[in-house]
Structures are given as C-alpha cells and as structure tokens.
Amino acid sequence: MSSQAEAPQAPPGTPDADPLRWWGLTVIAIAQLMIVLDATIVNIALPTAQADLHISVANRQWVITAYTLAFGGLLLLGGRIGDLFGRKRVFIIGLLGFAVASALGGAAQGQEMLFAARALQGALGAILAPAALSLLTTTFTEPSERGKAFGIYGAIAGGGAAVGLVLGGLLTEFLNWRWCLFVNSPIAIVAALGATRTLRDNLPQAARVRLDFIGVVLGCGGLLAIVYGCTEAETHGWSSPRVLGLLCGGGLLLVLFALFEGRVRNPLLPQHIVRDRNRGGAALTVALAVISLFGTFLFLTYYLQTIKGYSPVIAGVSFLPMTAGIVFTSTQVSSRLLTRIPARMLIVPGLLLVAVGMFMLVFLRAGSSYAAVVLPSEILIGLGMGLVFMPSMSVATSGVRPQDAGVASAVVNTAQQVGGSIGTALLNTIAASAATAYITAHATSPHVSRGLQVTGTVHGYNVASATAACIMLAAAILAAILINHHPDRYEAAARSRREAEAQSAA
C-alpha cells in the first residue's frame, strides 16, 4: 500500500488536503538530507582533495568556510526570497542551482574553482533550506499530520550529519573525493523533477511581501561577520584583533538591524517572529543544542580516527547508533506526543538526556573501548536530540502568517547554522587550551612523549565535553522557562491558517 493511501486524511470540515502531500514530503526530505549531508560529507574528503589540488594548509579551511559563510550569512535573505517569489519556485531553482554548483565543485581543477563552487553551494542552500521548511509548514497544517511530517524532518536534521560522515568515507575510500560533490547533482535533479509534480505553493501572489534591501545589508552583513569571526577563531584565537573586530562589527550591524526593522513597513525579519516567547525560545534552544552537538561530532571524529586509529569509513559507521536514536525518538516518540503534551515536556527531558550523554565523555580515556563509553554516550545523545529537534522546529514555525513562513523557517535555520559555527570554534578552542595546559603541567622534559600528547589531547576532549554538557543544561533551563506551547495551540494555528488562506483567496 502506498504512503498516500496510508496517510491520515484531513478532518471533516477542513479544505481538501493535497493528495500528493506525502510524496511532496519525500521531495522535501531528500532536499533537506542533501543540505545536511553537504555540511559534513566534504570533511572526510578534505585531506585527499587538498593533496590532489595542491591546496595549502593555510587555505584548506576555505573548502569548509566558503560554504559556511554563504549559507549562514544569507539564510535570512533566502527565507524572504521564498516569501517574495514563491517557495515552490525558489525551492526548484535552489535544487537545480545546487546540482550545478556541486558538479562544478566535483570538476574543480584548482583551489579557486573549488572555493567558488562551495560558496555557490552555500548561497543556494541558504534559499533552499528555508523554502523546504516553509513548504513543510504550509503543506502540513493539521496537527496529526504535522507531527508525522516534522518527525521525519527532525530525524533528518539531527541525524543527517552522521550519515554524511559515513557516505563521505565510503565515496572517498572506494571512488574519489570528487564524488562527495558529484553525488549531489543527480539527487538534486530528481528532487527538482519531483517537486514540479508534488508540491504546491499555498501563498497567493497578493500576500507576498517586498524585499527590505537595507535589512538585507545589515542583517546578512552582521551574520556573515559573526560566522566568519567564529571560523577565524579556530586558527587565530578568540582574543585576536581580527576575530574581535569581526564579532563586534557583526554584533553592531545586528543591533542596527534590529532598530531599523521596527521602523519599516515590510521588514526582512518581522519582530513579532522573534519576540514570541515560543518561537524565540525554540530558536535559542536549537542554537545552544547545535553548539554542543557540532563540538561533540568534531571531538569524537578526531578521537576515533587519531586516537583509536579507525578508518574514515569505520569512524563514520560508529556514529550510526546516534543517528538511529535520533530517527527513533523523532518519528516514534516526538511525532506521536507533540499534539498531546506541551512541547517543553519533550524538549527539556531531551536536552537533559543529551547533557548526560555528553557528560559521559568526560570519562573517556585513550584506552577506553568504544562499547564501554562512546556507544552509550551516542545512544543517549541520539535519543535526546530526537526529542529536541523535531518539537523545536515545529514550535519555531507554528502560528506564523502565510507570508512570513519563509523568514520564520530561516530564523531556525540561522540559529542552527550560527550555533554550529560557534560550537565548532568555541569547543575546539577550549579543547586545545586544556590539552596544552595539561601537557605543560605534566611534561618532565622539553621533549614531549607520544603518550603524553595523546593523554593531553583526550583530556582536552574531556574538558570540552563537560562544557558541552553544561551548555545543554543551560538550554534545558531556558527551554523550561521560555517555551510554553500547548497542544491546543496547534489546532488554533491550523484554524488561523485556514482562515488566512480563505481571506487571501477571496
């Protein structure tokens, strides 16, 4: 029996549901998986690509940074472009453009071509990701269906990064690093073809808004500066004038952005979106959760490969229990309970589970076995994140006006991307500083032995893991205070959505 036949039907008295909506969810899920995969799949291939294209050590970071900058800096603009020109159209253009950019990156003959292709991927991802989430938001408005749809989306958002590590290792080891980029092209083309038949844009032309150009300059400029400052902090340190200048300059631009947005008719980011305690709290929860999660991915990847000697493929496969945990709780727990209990009763316990899982890594040692420490930690983190991502993303996009669905989706995507940039840089700095201090304190001669270096490195991971656990605890406290979204509000949001569509069509 097809998924369409099994899908729950709209309740009596509601407008006829789109019969292709579940196929549309498949297309949206494929696009979202491609975006999430691309954030990590290239990491595994980077050493091989660096040697093949003769990229210097100083410049190799731009393979990652070019993508991160464009994606994180342009998300707000990308979300508003969908609101302005239509989400389905922007979604399809984004997919086709991503296919072209990926093909260019895979065919790169030099570092400049690869950097440019990665930046283009990031820019297209910045319009594709909000369009995907806003299409999901406007397609599935009935509470029971919304829970299932967001369960699938949340599983992909939380677990796709680990899948990227596995796929990157397989492609690099058995084919070529270029296939880590080429693989996106056929996926994107198939998804674009599917989108033409299965998706529809529920936003009437009359409801679309004009673009706030000054807001684009201030908002995107501020985000670009902050994301770039975080990436530079990994190599130059947080106290370097360059990093401080970028972070302070970015913060100033965002302050000006907030002041300006309250004075324009069609703001890039309507203030009611971030002032709402539920949407603001959900976005903040996602940001803090991703800060810890990305740092943990980084430490475990290095630990498994450099300390335990795992191959890239085996290291990637080692993350699958975490992915399985995210998929299970997103699709089988969160999706079933979100319309029955308050959202924070899922989010807060989820964050506490993740905090416990990360705290377990404090006891990691160079000789620890995978089954004794890493595996139980991954399972707890995975189960917890499935309770966090799906409800947070649903709450962050719930109850917004149809013409603001794109920018509301961009806000939670921006929180995720900026959180990842901060987390990678911040926790990496903490780990490196703790490792250096440990080695200095325990060295008995100018020559540092291999054993002391390994022990010091793992000690740095322990300290960073404790920090990540504390950040998760802080996120749990904030979520408990800020998020008070109740199940009956999903029904109210669905009703408001239907009334808005009826008024727009009249």
From TrEMBL:
Residues 24-487 form the Major facilitator superfamily (MFS) profile domain. Its main location: membrane. It is a multi-pass membrane protein. InterPro entries: EmrB-like, MFS, MFS_dom, MFS_trans_sf. Keywords: Antibiotic resistance, Cell membrane, Membrane, Transmembrane, Transmembrane helix, Transport. It comes from the Bacteria. It holds the Pfam family MFS_1. It is found in: Cell membrane. The chain crosses the membrane at residues 20-42, 62-78, 90-109, 115-138, 150-170, 176-199, 211-229, 241-260, 281-304, 310-329, 341-364, 425-443, 463-483. PROSITE patterns: MFS. This is MFS transporter. It comes from Streptantibioticus parmotrematis. The lineage of its organism: Bacteria, Bacillati, Actinomycetota, Actinomycetes, Kitasatosporales.
